[in-house]
C-alpha cells in the first residue's frame, strides 16, 4: 500500500482555486519532487499533507489514515487540533524559512519534539539528538543559537529537528530557496543522504539538478493541477506537455 | 578639492560655545532649586521619623500588597482576555472587545468609587442556590480598590499580551505543529517565551503606574501611603514633611521595580 495517497484534492483561498483536483500517490521509500512555476500550488499541496491547510474536497491518506479525520462506522469525523497534532508526529516537515525556535540552542531545538511531544527522557533524547546533529554535520554547533548559525546550518538543524521524531515521511517545502547560492549544496547533500537511506520524501523544489539525481519521480504542477509526471529522465529530458517544455526551457 | 588637503595642515576642531552656556544654565537652575529647598519652611529633620513611622510603614505594606495583587490579577485576566480576543469563537471575541472598551474607558477613580458604593444598589452578592453574602461585608476598601485598579489594568494587559502574541512569527507555530505539538504546548513552549520580549517592557511600565495608582484608594479611606501620610499630619500638621516621606517611599518602590524589570528583560532578551 502507498504511504501517501491523495485523491481529488481541492483547495481555495477566497475565490482563488489553488488546487484543482490533485491525485498523487507516494510509495514507501520513494522520493517525489514537485516542480512547477510559482503559484502552481506545490507548497499548498505539501501543507495539506500535514494538515497545516484544510482541504475543501478530496481526501489525503498517510499510511492508511485519513489526514485530519478519524474513520468510524463508515463516517469520517473531523479531528480536534490536539488529535491532528498526534497525526503529525509521524510526518516531518522542513520549511523554506527554517522556522527554528530562536530562544533555544540547536540541540534544544532537536530535543524539543521527543521530550515535549513524546514525553521521553532527556538523557536518552540528548544522546540521539547529538547523533542527529552529527549526521547533518553540526555536532560542534549543538550549543549555538539559531541567530549564530548560517542559513545552511539552520536548515540542517531544522532537518535534524524533524528527524528526531523518527517520521515515516518527510516533507520539504522549498528547503533551499531562502539560502545564499553557496550554501545550497550542504543542505542538498543532507537530503541526498537521507534519500539514499530510504526515507520517503516529498520535495517542493526549484533545484532541477537535485530532482534529476535524487528523485524517483518528478511531478510537474501548473495552476493547481498535475500536468505531467514520471521518472526524472522522462519529464526533465523529454517533456511531452507544452507547459512543461516552456518551464524547463526557462530554468535549465 | 582633495588636492588641497595635506597632512601638514593644522586642524581646528569645531567649537561648541552653546553647550557650555546651556550646561551652565542648567547647573544654575539646580543650585537655585537646592538653595530654595534648604531655605523653605520645612522641618527636614522630622522627615526621617515620618519615613519610618509605624503608620507610614503600615501604609507602605498595604500599598505593596494592593499593587502586587492588582497587577498579578490583571496579568492573569489579561492573558485570558487576550486569548479570547484572538479566539475563533466570535462570541468570545466580542466579549473581549467589549470588556476592554469598558474597563479601559472609565477613569480608575470612578471605577473604585463604583465598586466601593456597590452596596447602595446591590444589598447582597449571590449566585442563586449557591451562596449569598451582604455586599457591604465583602466590599471592603481593599476589595473595591483591588477591583477598580485590577480590572482597569487587565484591559491594558489584554492589549499588551495580544500585541506580544501577534508579534511572534506564524512560522513558529507551524514549526511547532509540524513536530506534533498540541496548541497548549505550542503556546507554553514556543509562542509565550518569544512574546515575553514584547510583553515585559510595557508591563513593567504599567506596574510602575500601578504602584502610584494605588494612591487613588486614599479617597475611600484605604490606608495606603498617602492616607497614612494624612493620618500622621492630621495630628502634628506637618503636611509637607509627611508627604515628602511618602514621596521618598514611592521613589524607592519605583526604583526597585525598574531594577526588577531590567533583569526580567535580560532573562528574556534576544539570543
Automatic annotation (TrEMBL), chain B:
Cellular component terms (Gene Ontology): ATP-binding cassette (ABC) transporter complex
Q: Which molecular function terms from Gene Ontology are attached?
A: transmembrane transporter activity
- List the GO biological process terms: amino acid transport
Every copy of the ABC transmembrane type-1 domain together lies at 60-261
Q: Which Gene3D superfamilies match?
A: MetI-like
Annotated keywords:
Amino-acid transport, Cell membrane, Membrane, Transmembrane, Transmembrane helix, Transport
Main localization (coarse): membrane
Q: Where are the transmembrane segments?
A: 20-38, 59-84, 96-122, 129-151, 243-264
* InterPro entries (alphabetical): AA_ABC_transptr_permease_3TM, ArtM/GltK/GlnP/TcyL/YhdX-like, MetI-like, MetI-like_sf
Q: Where in the cell is it found?
A: Cell membrane
> How does the protein's chain sit in the membrane according to the entry?
Multi-pass membrane protein
Per UniProt, what is one Pfam family of this protein? BPD_transp_1
Q: Which domain of life is it from?
A: Bacteria
NCBIfam families from the entry? HEQRo_perm_3TM (TIGR01726)
Regarding protein family, the annotation reads: Belongs to the binding-protein-dependent transport system permease family.
The name under which this protein is listed is Amino acid ABC transporter permease
The species this protein belongs to is: Lentzea alba
Source lineage: Bacteria, Bacillati, Actinomycetota, Actinomycetes, Pseudonocardiales
Amino acid at each position: 500500500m502507498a504511504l501517501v495517497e491523495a485523491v481529488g484534492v481541492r483547495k481555495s483561498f477566497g475565490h482563488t482555486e489553488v488546487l484543482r483536483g490533485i491525485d498523487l500517490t507516494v510509495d514507501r521509500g520513494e522520493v517525489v519532487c514537485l516542480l512547477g512555476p510559482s503559484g502552481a500550488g506545490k507548497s499548498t499541496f505539501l501543507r495539506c499533507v500535514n494538515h497545516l491547510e484544510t482541504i475543501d474536497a478530496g481526501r489525503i491518506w498517510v499510511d492508511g489514515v485519513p489526514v485530519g479525520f478519524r474513520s468510524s462506522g463508515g463516517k469520517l469525523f473531523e479531528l480536534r487540533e490536539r488529535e491532528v497534532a498526534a497525526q503529525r508526529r509521524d510526518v516531518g516537515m522542513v520549511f523554506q524559512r527554517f522556522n527554528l525556535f530562536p530562544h533555544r540552542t540547536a540541540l534544544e531545538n532537536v530535543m524539543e519534539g521527543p521530550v515535549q511531544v513524546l514525553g521521553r527522557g532527556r538523557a536518552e533524547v540528548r544522546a540521539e539528538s547529538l547523533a542527529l546533529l552529527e549526521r547533518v554535520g553540526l555536532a560542534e554547533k549543538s550549543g549555538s543559537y539559531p541567530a549564530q548559525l548560517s542559513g545552511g546550518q539552520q536548515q540542517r538543524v531544522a532537518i535534524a529537528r524533524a528527524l528526531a521524531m523518527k517520521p515515516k515521511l518527510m516533507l520539504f517545502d522549498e528547503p533551499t530557496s531562502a539560502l545564499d547560492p553557496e550554501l545550497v549544496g550542504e543542505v542538498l547533500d543532507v537530503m541526498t543522504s537521507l534519500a539514499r537511506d530510504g526515507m520517503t520524501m516529498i520535495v517542493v523544489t526549484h533545484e532541477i539538478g537535485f530532482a534529476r539525481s535524487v528523485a524517483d519521480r518528478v511531478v510537474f504542477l501548473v495552476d493547481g493541477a498535475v500536468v505531467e509526471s514520471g521518472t526524472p529522465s522522462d519529464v526533465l529530458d523529454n517533456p511531452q506537455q507544452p507547459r512543461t517544455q516552456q518551464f524547463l526551457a526557462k530554468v535549465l | 578639492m582633495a588636492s588641497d588637503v595635506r597632512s601638514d595642515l593644522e586642524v581646528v576642531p569645531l567649537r561648541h560655545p552653546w553647550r557650555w552656556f546651556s550646561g551652565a544654565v542648567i547647573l544654575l537652575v539646580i543650585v537655585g532649586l537646592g538653595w530654595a529647598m534648604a531655605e523653605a519652611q520645612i522641618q527636614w529633620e522630622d522627615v526621617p521619623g515620618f519615613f519610618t513611622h509605624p503608620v507610614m510603614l503600615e501604609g507602605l505594606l498595604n500599598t505593596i500588597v494592593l499593587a502586587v495583587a492588582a497587577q498579578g490579577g490583571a496579568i492573569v485576566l489579561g492573558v485570558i482576555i487576550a486569548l479570547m480576543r484572538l479566539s475563533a469563537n466570535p462570541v468570545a471575541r466580542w466579549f473581549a472587545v467589549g470588556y476592554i472598551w469598558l474597563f479601559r474607558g472609565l477613569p480608575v477613580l470612578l471605577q473604585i468609587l463604583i465598586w466601593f458604593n456597590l452596596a447602595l444598589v446591590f444589598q447582597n452578592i449571590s449566585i442563586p442556590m449557591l451562596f449569598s453574602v451582604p455586599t457591604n461585608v465583602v466590599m471592603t476598601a481593599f476589595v473595591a480598590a483591588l477591583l477598580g485598579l485590577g480590572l482597569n489594568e487587565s484591559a491594558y494587559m489584554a492589549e499588551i499580551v495580544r500585541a506580544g502574541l501577534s508579534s511572534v512569527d506564524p512560522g513558529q507555530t507551524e514549526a511547532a505543529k509540524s513536530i506534533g505539538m498540541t496548541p497548549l504546548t505550542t503556546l507554553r513552549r514556543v509562542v509565550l517565551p518569544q512574546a515575553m520580549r514584547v510583553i515585559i517592557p510595557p508591563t513593567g511600565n504599567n506596574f510602575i503606574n500601578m504602584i502610584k495608582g494605588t494612591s487613588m484608594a486614599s479617597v475611600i479611606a484605604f490606608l495606603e501611603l498617602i492616607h497614612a501620610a494624612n493620618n500622621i499630619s492630621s495630628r502634628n500638621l506637618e503636611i509637607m514633611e509627611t508627604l515628602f516621606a511618602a514621596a521618598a517611599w514611592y521613589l524607592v518602590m519605583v526604583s526597585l521595580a525598574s531594577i526588577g524589570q531590567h533583569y526580567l528583560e535580560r532573562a528574556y532578551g534576544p539570543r
